[in-house]
Each structure stands twice: as structure tokens, then as C-alpha cells.
Structures
1.
Amino acid sequence: MKKIFLLFLIFILLPLSAKAIEETNAEEINNNEEIHLNLNSLEKEKEESLEISETSSPEQPSENIFKKALSDIYNLQVERNDVTSFLLKDYTTVHFENSPVESLHFWGGYIGNFNMNFGEDKYFQYNANVVQTGVDGKFKNDVADFRILFDMSPIRNNSRSFMQNFFSDVYIGTNKIPHHRLMIGNMYTHIGMEGGTSRYLIDFFTRSQMAQTFAPSRKLGVKLTGDWDLVEYELGGYSSDVYFHKFFPGTEFTGMVNFKPLGKTSGKWGKLVLGGGISTGKRDVPYTVSSGYAAYQYKKFMAEFECSYANGYNGLYGATRTQANGYVVTLKYNITKKLQILACYDHFNPNRDNSSYSNAYVAGINYFMKGQAARLILNYVFTQKSHTVDSHAIILATQFML
């Protein structure tokens, strides 16, 4: 146990000691998103993780712990990049024998970036964007599991306090219903495919403009997800409050359905997903966000299209009647298992009552050193906005999950 908590404590303290944490604008980062919504599965919400093949030997001298850990990290082989993996899972997982809890996995995530902006406001800065720690627990006989996630990321707006942001995921879930997963607690709501993807699994450094605006929020409620060969779906009922501002100011329903026409072909002609969803409720004002999605993957190539249309929405900064819409087109190609190139066109209209618009052209490279557990991200972003001058930015980011 001492070894586990020593490594965990060191991980927490190191990123928090950085002096270069500065403000970044709202379009660059939304640092509070969790829980993955997979292309092939409307996600079990309890993210899969990849195991380290070698386990640490019992009673190993403390002076050799770091050497063994570094060796395990160096030899870790990760085959998939669409699920989360952890560099030190064997070291930070505790197993119990005489307890209803089978295991506890303590983990942490960190994302930081260098941002070089060449627009009207020129700057070069380093940002600690995501600083999180969590514990995933599993009950014996696979009866249920739970997650508690603490978010210590810098708050870059006045919409919530540190403590409102601190308790992010607090939920319990079960997979005992065949083809289904039931979850109860405070958790991320899936508004759109990209909007429901984990912060650690999104393709680019930041989400699209519409996903940043409509989607990133956690709410208290219950959700049911289903996964079959030809269809996947999610149905959820929640309080319309976000981040513990008010106690049940209203209700919200969020649902998604995706169809997989090639689901029974074993990938012979690739993978095709067609679907959409809706999120509607009331929090001071009524709001409704609808979305559509299409994706095709064949071997190393993938193309995605997503659009959203909002008659009011309930985002990070509260509910609003503002009518907005947007769409994004993304192309990806895996050169190798570790190296991926990608590009997207991101259009957003923040208010349909006027002629404002924002277009972003993004090109990127992802290098998966150890899957999503150790990832390098390089993005070039060219932005056009209706009422400001064009801007250019280069973003170099690192992502680690222990």
C-alpha cells in the first residue's frame, strides 16, 4: 500500500507545482470532460482499460520500485487507441479478499500544452489544462462498479467555484442486464457523439466549437445504455443543474440512437454508423439541442460528420434561449499503430439571430507512445470569425494517464 500511495502522491504534486499555469481563451480548452462514447458502442461509461502484462513482484525493495515501474512502462504494449489505458495500473490497484469490494484502482490524468498564437493577440504560453485523480472500484462477482473522480484543473471562468468543479464523477453502475448498462449518480451527459467522448479520447486537442458550447457538463441522474449488433442507444433522465449550482431546478431528458448497418459483416466492408440524438429540458428557460451523426471507417481511414441545432442550450455557463448551430467534418488516417494524421473543418454560428460565424480549420498529428496513456498532440489551427481578424495557432500538448 505504501508503494501505491507514494506513486500516486508524486503524480498529483508534480503537475500542480508548475508555475506556468495561465489563462487561456474559452475556445482553446474545455478541461472538464470525461467518460467516453465509443463509435462502436454507445459506451459502457466505465471506460475499458488495458492491462500491463508484467506485474510487480511482492515485497520488492522500495529503492527498486521506480526502476521496475520505468521498465514496465517502457515495455508496455498498447494495441488500441480508442480506449483509455494506464501506465501504472498494476502499481495503483489494490485487491481485497474478505470484502464486498474486489478491487480499487487509483489513477490520475494530466494534459498540458504549449500554445503559440499568431493572431491579433500574440502570445506564447504553457497551460496545465487537465489535472484529475480518481478511483474506480469493482464489487465481487461483477455485481456493480463505481467511479469517484476529483478534478483539480484550473478554473478559467467565474461560473463555478473550485469545489463545485472538484467532485466530477460520482456514480455506480451495473452490467448485469444483458446488452445493457445502468448508471446512477453524478455523471457526464452525452449530447452529440463528440460531446460525449472522454477528454482523453477526443481526436484533437480541443473539441469542436459546437461541442464546447452545447455538451460539456455533468448532471445528477440515471441513464441506461444498450449495445446490440445493429443498434446502440442511450436514454437518460437528469436534474438540469450543472456542477452543483442549484438543487433540482428542473428536469432534462437526453437520448441517442445509432444504427450500424454493417454490424453483422465482421468489418468486411468497413464500419458505418448513422444516428442522432436530442437533449431537452428546463432550467430557468426551456432548451432543446438536436444532433445528427455519420461515420465510416475502412481499415486505416475514417471520415466523420456531425451537426447540432440548438433552440436554447444548457452548457457550462447555464441555460440560455440563444439559438445556435454548427457542424464539423473530420478525416483521419492511421499511418501506423502509433502515428495518426487528421484534419477537420469546424463551422459554428453562435447566434442565428445575427450574421456572426466562426470557422476553424485544424490539421493535426497524434503520436500514441503508449496508447492514450502517453500521447503527443500537435495541432495547427486557422480561425476566421465574423467580427475579429483571422488568427493562427500552433498547439503542442502532452497527455499522461497513470
Note: The radius of gyration is 21 Å.
2.
Amino acid sequence: MLEVAYVSAPQASLRDQVAAIYNRVGNVKNGERVEVLEHEKRFARVRTASGIEGWIEQRYLVDQKTFDGLQKLTQDNKDAPTQAPGILRNDTNLHITPGREAEHLFQLSSGAKVAILKRATAEKQPGAAVPNRPTGTKPGAKTQAGPVLEDWWLVRDSLGHVGWVLARMVDVDVPLEIAQYAEGQRFVAVFVLDEVPDSDKGVQKNVPQYLCILTDPHDGLPYDYDQVRVFSWNMRKHRYETAYREHGLNGVLPVRVTKEDFDKEGSLPVFILRVQDEAGAVSERKYKLNTPIVRRVLAPGEVVSHPAKKRRR
């Protein structure tokens, strides 16, 4: 049985011979399946599904194992909830695991839109740019010993492909009207909880209210997020206000947003956070928004030991 490989470059040429001077006999595209007929140093002779045969650089090919791994990653996360929309800053590879040296198959173009699903960290490779220094750390100051970690996002592209990309290659697409309230923190996830009607200068419109998940603006943190804010819309002043704020969370993605019926209060937006304790156990916390009030929804027997901090602005 012939060896099978897949094209990992956006596009590559097939040549008639391995030589400085050659004729192009065809092209292959990203993700295309080919049969490998023979190997010679840095090249492989392949045959496409349409029967075209030619030589291609082996660095543009990945094996069946890599393809199957990415297919499984895609299948396992096909229903994973989107945490935030993202936009790629540069042409970026979708890796099978977090890490610059990890195998990849598909490549996304600069400006492509993706859905951010999960976060992970990986050790920075030698020669790679150093991640952002922790807040408050001065140049030349001593930092904690150990490997330097980089953040990675698991993303899903417009075609449904799933893979890991370096987090600093993705801009979280936060609505401008709430991005201004970052206060130096990094947006990790953003959700529309609901919409409320507003009439400004005789114009009627529906305005979204947001749940925002944030953290300090540097890589390698031991948690996915540690801050939560809810922005409600003040219909009298026609502006956003902070309806809820909570700090000190050892948060774990994903965050889930849904709706739930609360008897006399009716159907309300609900968000569920996953929080890890010192022993590593992950539990869920449920909150409801009855504009403009956010309250914790306790499970039977649950007690809040540290009341959340709230602030209106």
C-alpha cells in the first residue's frame, strides 16, 4: 500500500524533476491528499487524486498520523462553545498540540476570523520572542526560575478546522464600546447576555449587555482568568455601567451562557463559571442577570464564603 501524505502549505508546485532547472507540472493546495511514490533527500515524488505526478519539497507534507490527529481534535471540539471571536494578526498555522514545534496541517491567512475555544500554555522555544513581562515587573528585575511559558488558543476556523495557535497571533474581537473599559487587563472571553431596548433622540434600538472575562496581560498564568465583569446598559443615561465585578478567581474555561426560568422574575440570562480550588478540584458557580442586578444562584446546600465585590460606575 502506498504511503499517504497531506499538503501543509497554502499552495505548492509539483516539478518534473529534482534539479535547479525544472518544469512545473501542477499545483497542490493546503489539506490536499497525495500518494507518495518515492523519496529523495528533501523531496518526495507524489501523485494527486487527479493522477498528476511530480516532485514536492517534503517540508510541505505531513503524514497520515498528523492528519488523523487534527481530525480527532476537530471532532472532539466541534460542539465546544465559543468563548470569544478572534482575528488573526498574521498568517498562522493550526498546530495539533500547543507549541511552535508541534505538527500542523492547515494554515490560516492574516485577518482570518476564528472562534476561540480554550487556552493552554507551552514552554517558549529558544530564539522565540519573550512573552510580555508580568505587570509591575521592571526590566532587569529577577523573575521566578523555570521555563518561560507562552499562551496558546484552541481555535475553530470558518471551515470548521480546529487547532492550536500562539495567543499573541490572535486579537480577541471585543466590541469597541466595552473595550475602553479594559483598565489594562486582557480580555479572555466576551459574551452577549441579552439585549435591552433603548430610545435615544427618538431612535429605538436594542443594546447588548455583556459578560466579560479578563486577566492580567501576560502569558503563563496558572489559571485561564481571574476577573469577571458584567456591563449593563443605563437606559436613562444611554451608557454602559459596571453592574458586577469579581476578582481573585482561579477560573477555568469554558464559560457557559444560557437562559433559565426564575418563577416571578421570569426567564433571565445565566452564566456559569468553572473555578478551581487549591486542591485542583473544579466546581461551577452560577449567576443570573436581572438588569441591572447580578446575583449568585446557589445550589442546594451551597454557601458563599467570600461575597463577591460589586461596584457600580
Note: The chain is about 5% helix and 50% strand.
